[in-house]
Write a structure and sequence with these properties.
globular, binds magnesium ion, binds 3-methylbut-3-enyl trihydrogen diphosphate
């Protein structure tokens, strides 16, 4: 979508709807993006200082423009792409801040390498879209979205280390320990993890109770009974052959922890930000949990059927891993994938059309090639 198109359109539905939704600041930005005469504060846009910040606000406006409530919709992939750009720019700003705070250049360079090079940004997308069910502005959700992506990027650095999966390629580029070295990669992972909590604790413009709930949720999801615990089960199977004959239930436990915990958390954080009712939050958490396991099953299938050039990471690496492919064959994995997709769809029933983007995220997860 070009700015011209938004410009022509903004005089009509978009700005009026934003105003009706009480989003006057965004409406104001939208007007100034396209130099509308109807701009309630003509100088608003230019008061936003530096070019980077303005670019981020432009993205926000365009992203909001695609909100179904604003009456203009955009394809799922374009919307995901907008989130990716938005999160990328937020992450870049955060890492600039780390450098300014005095972190060693080498460490910041490794953190940037791990964080700013592509990635689907699915977890931030889920957080932003879940929050938007409750009309949380994208700009408010973007900081928490960046925090969860920082945890994800740290998990990938460590996952790729020689002591773990020993991978050389990630997001189409050398892994951090290849581009730098192992000790730098370990420290960059540590620094991204801790940065995530600094960001979440201090940078989200909500009350302390909401911030605290988000910090606790992310810590739980990332920790020993979540992602880290799942990685332990994954490597126990891979390196120690334990348990000797993993069954489907063991694989389900492993996947729920190593991958689904963080994806579920993205949805939980969106619900917390949106101050969802307990039953709404539970439905979204279950959606995230089902989607998360489906995401890992799809990832394991891609290891068998996918192309390294498309995925940006090596394929045919999982022979010794505890996967559904290994336990019951590809047929069983695909069957389970379809069941999980149907379960995830069912969780969204109470949210009506507003959850269409989250429904599309299920299809995206199942059908993705990277
Ligand atoms: C890869 O996650 C690790 C898994 C949990 C399977 P993604 O497939 O979301 O990786 P990026 O962020 O898009 O590179
Ligand atoms: C990684 O799972 C899950 C994480 C917690 C990072 P994989 O090891 O299957 O992820 P890829 O295939 O390397 O991306
Ligand atoms: Mg792994
Ligand atoms: Mg791996
Ligand atoms: Mg994998």
């Amino acid at each position: 979508m070009s700015f011209c198109r938004l410009g022509a359109w903004s005089t009509h539905a978009f700005v009026r709807r934003l105003l009706r939704l009480g989003r006057s600041m965004l409406a104001s930005i939208a007007c100034s993006v396209v130099h509308e005469p109807a701009n309630p504060r003509p100088d608003f846009w230019y008061s936003y200082g530096n070019v980077k910040k303005r670019a981020e606000l432009r993205r926000l406006v365009l992203f909001e423009a695609t909100n179904p409530e604003c009456g203009w919709s955009m394809g799922f992939n374009q919307r995901l792409n907008f989130t990716a750009q938005l999160v990328e720019s937020r992450l870049s700003g955060l890492l600039d801040g780390v450098g300014r705070a005095g972190a060693p250049e080498r460490l910041v360079a490794a953190m940037r390498h791990a964080t700013l090079a592509g990635g689907k940004r699915l977890r931030p997308f889920l957080l932003i879209e879940t929050a938007s069910l409750f009309d949380v502005p994208t700009e408010s959700a973007a900081t928490a979205a960046a925090a969860i992506e920082l945890v994800h990027c740290y998990s990938l650095i460590h996952d790729d280390l020689p002591a773990m999966d020993n991978d050389d390629l990630r997001r189409g580029r050398p892994t951090v320990h290849k581009a730098f070295d192992e000790w730098t990669a370990i420290l960059a992972g540590d620094a991204l993890l801790t940065l995530a909590f600094e960001v979440l604790a201090g940078g989200v413009p909500t009350g302390p109770a909401v911030n605290l709930a988000m910090v606790a949720s992310l810590a739980r999801a990332a920790g020993a009974a979540g992602m880290v615990g799942g990685q332990c089960l994954d490597l126990e199977a891979d390196k120690l052959g334990l348990p000797p004959r993993p069954d489907a239930a063991h694989v389900a436990r492993l996947q729920a922890m190593k991958t689904a915990a963080l994806i579920r958390c993205a949805c939980e954080l969106g619900a917390i930000l949106g101050q969802a009712r307990p039953e709404e939050q539970r439905a979204l958490e279950t959606y995230g949990a089902r989607l998360g396991v489906a995401f890992q099953i799809a990832d394991d299938l891609l290891d068998v059927e996918g192309a390294a050039t498309v995925m940006g990471k090596a394929a045919r690496k999982d022979a010794a891993k505890a996967t559904l492919n290994a336990v019951g064959g590809i047929g069983l994995a695909k069957e389970r994938l379809a069941e999980l997709a149907a379960d995830a769809v069912a969780c969204l029933a109470r949210f009506g059309d507003k959850a269409d983007v989250l429904r599309d995220a299920i299809a995206f997860t199942v059908e993705r090639e990277r």
